[in-house]
Each structure stands twice: as structure tokens, then as C-alpha cells.
Design brief:
0% strand
Length: 436
């Protein structure tokens, strides 16, 4: 069977991509997106149906064409360590503290992850060598829709009510501000480098307008969401990436990026020195601290980390406490172990899946970094910048928030999609480089 692209499949895949990201990122009824059980029964049904539609469409296409399966199979290598992580979850299930809870959470993760694979499968089957281009284009539509959050928050709470508590209101009760800020962060860099991370072509009016809107509006929304972890992760990720890119590509090709950074830093310093920006009030607001002690505990995070580390014994170090289960008991077992996670991706994985689960995650990140370094030989600086920055943002932000180890989540899904297709398969990269 020959699969050809048509407007019917274009619209269907765009809709499925939006459905997937809504289902994997949001939970109605709770600001905490790490708990699949929250969100009300109707939204759980929505998630089941959304994933089901995507899985059915993917299986349908793969079953109708060997060529489609071959195209999809090419993408599986980049998911190897995620498969290892899933296998470990099954192997260690008998050793879980709460087998029922861990099994349920594992099924939720596996179902949503299979839906992501089937989304990739459909793009590979329909668009073949243009699969990355079309998947990124559909992901751009989802990022553009995120602009609705501050609009909805303003309508629901009124301008005064929203501006008076923007961090608490911006998520509209369906996504935690930290998670939303991470999505805005990924969206910003996705929009900023969009034209460089795929083959050169004629972009549609929607793509041009969406990328401009995202590039200008999302930085403001990142500040409004006011996740300190995201802001610090951005600073560290961009700084390290600029150093790496400067070493590889030299000063000339990065002059605009470096000049923009210098102008931004100088302007910010001038605004502070002249009193235009009240730095003391800004620091006080930024810290969101009720007492000086909170500063040293990172608003309670270090206490939680200490508790988790004390719960790890020889057995849990090897087998973990069970998938998505942070501890065997204690004051944080229910309020944090099942709901919020460890506020640290690496510690969450270590506590729930043991040292082998943590090793699988670290090897996945190492694989992504290695592929990016190899791609430097053929890709232009802006394209490499995107892959470096989003990877470093995930690595640094994961120190203070849990983005993997509970549910699949929108943040980790975007990371997976970005690295699913071989980076060096971006066509005509030399022509892009020559046009910089």
C-alpha cells in the first residue's frame, strides 16, 4: 500500500498532536500535573480516549504497510534507554512497597508513552523523510495554543485578580506553574530556532506568525509563571551552550547571539543601577519565602531530599521502592511520595527505580548529548543551539523539580520528540549554514 499525504491526514495528525499534549500535560481539578488520578473522572476519560484514538490510528497505519513500519522502526533507536527503564519497572514490580499503586502508575505511563510512539509512527508513515518537519509543525500549533492560559486566567479572575496573584492563577487550575513555565521555556526556544531545526522550505503564514509570537511573548509568560528553577536553568543552559558553540563555531557566527546577550545584560544592569528596577523588591518577590530558613531549604526541598535519601536502604538502592513510589513510609510518603514527587528528577528515579533506573535515565541524556555533539559536524550553530539548550534546561531544571519518574509529562515528551529523529538527517544543512 502506498501512503500519500493529503489534507485529511494533515488535519487528523495536527488534531492528534494537540490532543496528546493536552492529555499528557494537564490535569483538571488540580494544579499538580504529576498525579494522573487528579483531574476529575471526565478528564481521565478524555485522556483514555485521546490516547486510544492515537494508538488506534498508529496501529492501523503500521498494519497496512511494511514501508510504514520500516520508517517507524528507524526512530526506535533513540528510545532505547526509555525501553530499558520500562523493562526495569516490570522486573522490579514484585519488590514494590505498594504493588497496586506502582502497577497502576506504570500502566498510565506505558499507555501515554505508547501513544507518543504511535504519534511518531503516523508521521513517519505519512510523511517519511519529512516526518520531523511535520511533527515539529504540529508541535508548534500546541505551543501557540499555550498563549490562551494568561488570557483565560485574566477572563476567569479579572485583570486585577490575575495580576495580583499571577503565579497562582496563570495555570488556571489545570497545570502547575513550574510545569507551565517549563513548557513556555521549551516553546520559546522551539519558536526561536524553528527555521533551523528542519529542512529549509517555504514556511506558511501561520508558522511565521506563531514563531514570532512565541519568541516575543513566551519570555514574558515565563516570568509570569515565575518558576525560579526554570529561570535559573535557562541562564545556566544558555551560558554553557554559548561557551560550547563559541569553541566549536567561533566568534563570527555567534556574534549576534553574543551581542544580544551583552546588550540585555548591560541594559538590565543600567535599569537596576538607576532604580528603574527595584532590585530588593524583585529579590523578595522572586524568593517567595515566608522566612529566612526557607532560603536555605529551597522552600522545603532540601528537607524532602534528606527524607528520601534516609529512606534508601540496600534493597531499595537496587530495586527501588516501586515505580512512582518515592518511599516506604513516613510523613512524606502520602503527601509527597504519591502526589508531588521528590522535586528532583534524579532523586525521584533513584528512590522509585533504584540505581539501575537512574543509570537508564543518565544514559538517555548522555545519548542525546552525544548525538548533538556528533551533529555539530554538519548542522548550523542555531540548530545545535536548540538541541543543546533544551537538553541542558531539562538537566538543570530537573534538580529542583520532577519531570520524569512519575508520569510521561509534556516536558519529557517534547524532549523525546526533539531527539526522536536522527539529527544529521536535517536535509540541506550546508545550504542553511551558508545563508547565516
Amino acid at each position: 500500500m502506498s501512503l500519500t499525504t493529503n489534507s485529511k491526514w494533515d488535519k487528523l495528525l495536527t488534531a492528534q498532536t494537540i490532543l496528546f499534549f493536552i492529555a499528557v500535560s494537564f490535569s483538571i481539578g488540580s494544579a499538580d500535573t504529576t498525579e494522573e488520578q487528579s483531574g476529575g473522572g471526565w478528564f481521565i476519560i478524555f485522556k483514555i480516549l485521546a490516547y486510544g484514538i492515537i494508538c488506534y490510528s498508529g496501529i492501523y497505519l503500521l498494519s497496512r504497510s511494511n514501508e510504514a513500519y520500516k520508517e517507524f522502526k528507524k526512530t526506535l533507536g533513540s528510545h532505547f534507554y526509555v525501553f530499558v527503564y520500562l523493562a526495569l519497572a516490570i522486573i522490579f514490580l514484585p519488590f514494590a512497597v505498594d504493588i497496586k499503586h506502582s502497577f497502576f502508575k506504570f500502566v498510565v505511563f506505558a499507555y501515554s508513552y505508547f501513544a507518543l510512539l504511535m504519534l511518531v509512527a503516523q508521521h513517519s508513515a505519512i510523511y517519511k523523510q519529512d516526518a520531523r518537519t511535520m511533527l515539529f509543525k504540529n508541535t508548534l500549533v500546541f505551543f501557540a495554543l499555550l498563549i490562551l492560559f494568561p488570557i483565560a486566567a485574566t477572563i476567569l479572575n479579572g485583570p486585577a485578580g490575575f495580576l495580583g496573584a499571577f503565579r497562582a492563577k496563570i495555570g488556571c487550575g489545570i497545570v502547575h506553574p513550574n510545569h507551565l513555565s517549563a513548557l513556555y521555556t521549551y516553546g520559546f526556544f522551539f519558536g526561536l530556532f524553528y527555521r533551523y531545526i528542519q529542512a529549509p522550505r517555504q514556511f506558511s503564514k501561520f508558522e511565521l506568525r506563531a514563531t514570532k509570537m512565541i519568541s516575543f511573548v513566551f519570555p514574558l509568560l515565563i516570568v509570569l509563571a515565575f518558576s525560579r528553577g526554570a529561570l535559573v536553568a535557562i541562564i545556566l543552559a544558555v551560558t554553557i551552550s554559548i561557551v560550547i558553540l563559541t569553541i566549536k563555531y567561533g566568534i563570527k557566527k555567534l556574534a549576534i547571539l553574543q551581542l544580544a546577550g551583552l546588550v540585555a545584560f548591560t541594559g538590565f544592569a543600567l535599569l537596576i543601577s538607576t532604580g528603574v528596577i527595584p532590585i530588593q523588591s524583585l529579590i523578595s518577590s522572586f524568593s517567595r519565602l515566608e522566612s529566612g530558613a526557607d532560603l536555605y531549604t529551597l522552600t522545603g526541598r532540601t528537607e524532602l531530599w534528606e527524607f528520601v535519601l534516609k529512606q534508601i536502604d540496600i534493597q531499595s538502592l537496587i530495586t527501588g521502592n516501586g515505580y512512582a513510589r518515592m518511599s516506604g513510609g513516613g510523613e512524606f510518603a502520602i503527601s509527597h511520595g504519591k502526589l508531588f514527587g521528590a522535586h528532583n528528577t534524579y532523586l525521584m528515579v533513584l528512590a522509585s527505580m533504584g540505581i539501575f533506573g537512574l543509570l537508564a535515565l543518565l544514559l538517555f541524556l548522555h545519548q542525546c548529548l552525544s548525538r548533538t555533539f556528533l551533529a555539530m559536524k554538519v548542522l548550523p550553530a542555531p540548530a545545535v543551539a536548540y538541541f543543546l539548550i533544551i537538553l541542558f534546561v531539562f538537566m538543570f531544571h530537573s534538580v529542583v523539580d520532577s519531570f520524569f519518574g512519575l508520569n510521561l509529562g509534556g516536558v519529557f515528551s517534547i524532549l523525546l520528540i526533539s531527539f526522536t529523529y536522527p539529527l544529521i538527517n536535517i536535509k540541506n544543512e550546508k545550504s542553511i549554514t551558508n545563508n547565516l
